[in-house]
Amino acid sequence: MLNRIPTGVKALDDLFDGYLFGVLHGFGGETGSGKTHITAYWPIIQIYKHVTQVEGKLHEQQKFFVLDGDGGFDLERFKQICRANRVPFEEIVNKHLVYKEIVTLKEQHEWIRKIIPKKIKEEHIQPLYIVADPMIVHYRVKILGTPRKYRLAQIGESTGKIAGQLITIRRLAVKYKIPACITSWTAGNIEITTKEESEFGISAVFKEKSPFIGGRAMGYMPKVIVILGRPIRELPLRIAYLYKHRSKPDGITSYFMITGKGLEDAPEKLVKKVEEYLQKRVQKKKRGRKKKTEKEAEEEEE
Ligand SMILES: Nc1ncnc2c1ncn2[C@@H]1O[C@H](COP(=O)(O)OP(=O)(O)OP(=O)(O)O)[C@@H](O)[C@H]1O
Ligand SMILES: [Mg+2]
Predict the structure, then answer these.
(1) Whose CA is nearest to atom 15 of ligand 1?
(2) Dihedral sign, CA of 121, 127, 133, 134?
(3) Does residue 45 carry a pLDDT above 90?
(4) What's the rounded mean pLDDT across residues 122-134?
(5) Is 233 in the pocket of ligand 1 (CB under 6 A)?
(6) Model confidence at 202, in pLDDT bands (50, 70, 90)?
(7) Would the CB of 31 count as within 6 Å of ligand 1?
(8) Closest CA to 204 of 159, 142, 251, 255
(9) What is the pLDDT of residue 132?
(10) CB 34 near ligand 1, within 6 Å
(11) CA distance 23 to 246
């Protein structure tokens, strides 16, 4: 039996296997790196295709849950992707989508901890997928909006709330044997280098120990964590870095593209070109660093 929904993008399936049933996935990355594509539009498309292939059609009680933390889920964009993939946009939106734009941490907590489980039970819903994207906007607002002297207490309370929400989403994923995703922002800078140039032979290096903001549970609860980046702003190419996986070696990267159709494999030629460009950029940076240290040493000697 299938235990996952493939992304259908070879580079991504090779990297993290696709959306696993019963597993909480965490995605992070800078703005525009593709979090909403990879965790909201795309899994709905892929799950819809899978269910219709196996069961003929979706039945009325089958629903996708989308909790939108920043208004990033754009219906026009979703429509484009549906059309390009021959998936009926109106049917999904009118019958199978439970969409909620979240405006406070309290509301997010209520939706995840109470409303969704209650809805599923009372309305006899068969959830197909759950996503909270991004999960940490209102968490961050809450903490930053708290005066300094009470901030530590607020951090404790809010990270506790996020941990509770992660537990509920994971519980629902396990109970209904479906994939679930959350997204966050990365805690530190992502330094994208190339395998050959990196000191450790990997392509993306994190300066911070925790991959995400939102407390320690953000790193522990998802069993698959992927960090996304855009190595060159002008290009549709994106880089995906496997930070953690239950059953695959992590620390590896792959490239994919955001296109009109949604997500696609990147042409090999383009990847090669970008790798070469990144390599040059890294070398230049390294030379710069070396020069700086030499200059500092000279100054010390004087
Ligand atoms: N029709 C399209 N064709 C190609 N690329 C598109 C199209 N629509 C949107 N994009 C690209 O998708 C990217 C945004 O992706 P997405 O919204 O998934 O990013 P994100 O990581 O969720 O960003 P944020 O942190 O701001 O929420 C943008 O770079 C945009 O150019
Ligand atoms: Mg987004």
Answers:
(1) 34
(2) positive
(3) yes
(4) 98
(5) no
(6) low
(7) yes
(8) 251
(9) 98
(10) yes
(11) 10
Cβ–ligand 1 distance for 80 under 6 Å, the answer yes
Q: How much is the pTM?
A: 0.92
**Percent helix, strand, coil in the chain (nearest 5)?**
45, 25, 30
Note the pLDDT of residue 274: 87
| Residue nearest (by alpha carbon) to ligand 1 atom 11 | 258
pLDDT tens per residue across span 64-76: 999 999 999 999 9
- Give CA separation, 101 vs 113, 130, 137, 198, 295, in Å: 16, 14, 12, 40, 53
Give residue-wise pLDDT tens across range 171-194.
Answer: 999 999 999 999 998 876 666 665
By alpha-carbon position, which residue is closest to atom 28 of ligand 1? 32
Q: Please tell me if the CB atom of residue 195 comes closer than 6 angstroms to any atom of ligand 1.
A: no
Amino acid at position 20, single letter? L
Q: In degrees rounded to 5, what are phi and psi of residue 65?
A: -100, 120
Pairing of strands 62-68, 97-101: parallel
Name the class of domain 4-270: alpha beta
Ligand nearest 185 Cα, by number? 1
Domain borders along the chain are 4-270
